[in-house]
Amino acid sequence: MRGAGARVLLWGALVACLAGIAFLTVGASTSFSNSGTSSVNLTLFQEIERALRSDSRIAWLNLIGNLAMFAPLGAVLVALMRRLTVVLRVMVATVVSGMLSAAIEIAQLALGRVADIDDVLLNTLGAFGGAVVAAVVIGVTNAVRRRRYDGGRASSSAGRAADF
C-alpha cells in the first residue's frame, strides 16, 4: 500500500505506539499500587547486570520488554520520514526515541517511581533495532519495486547498454 492511505495508517500506528508506551510506563503507575518512594539509578548497566545474573523471570521480562516496547516506535518513525536518507532516518528515530524514554523516566520519578538509566538504554536500543529492521524492509521493498519498474533489466549501465 502506498500513498495517502499508507501515510494515514503510519500516523495511526505512531499514535498507537505512543499510547501503548504511555500506558505501559506512566499509566501503569496509576493502575498498580506503588510505595510512593521515588529513586534514581544512574549507574549504567547495574540493573541489566542484575537481571542477567538473576534466575527471575520478571527481571528477564523487564529486559526484553524494555527492548521490545520501543522497537515498533523506531520502525514507524523510519517509515514516516521519507525525505531523509536511510542512515539519517535511523539516527533520528533512535535519538527521538531515546529522548522520549528519558522524558518517561523523569515522569516516573515525579510519580514516585524509580527512574533507571538502563531503561533509557534498553528503550533506545529497542528503537534502534526496530528502525534498522524497518530501513532494511523499506530498502528491499524499494529495490523490488524498481526492478519491476525496470522490467527486470539489469540495473548497471553496462546491462542497460546491452539491452539496446
Main β-sheet, in a few words?
A: 2 strands, parallel
The low-pLDDT segments are 158-164
Distance between the termini: 33 Å
Shape: elongated
Give the helix tally.
Answer: 6
Helix proportion of residues, in percent?
A: over 70%
Instruction: Give me the strand/helix succession.
Output: HEHHHEHH
Q: How do the strands line up in the largest sheet? A: 1-2
- Structural class comes to mainly alpha
Radius of gyration: 21 Å
- Count the beta strands: 2
Average pLDDT reading: 87
- As a percent range, the share of strand residues is under 5%
Keywords:
single chain; 164 residues; mainly alpha; two-stranded parallel ribbon; 6 helices
Write a brief structural summary.
This protein has 164 residues and is mainly alpha-helical.
What is the element layout, followed by pairings?
Layout: H1 4-31, E1 39-41, H2 46-53, H3 57-80, H4 86-110, E2 114-116, H5 117-149, H6 157-163
Detailed description of the structure:
With 164 residues, the chain is mainly alpha-helical. Helices cover 76% and strands 4% of the residues. The protein contains six helices and two strands; from the N terminus they run H-E-H-H-H-E-H-H. It has helices at 4-31, 46-53, 57-80, 86-110, 117-149, 157-163, and strands spanning 39-41, 114-116. The chain has a two-stranded parallel sheet. The radius of gyration is 21 Å and the shape is elongated. The protein starts with a helix and ends with a helix. Mean pLDDT is 87; it is low at 158-164.
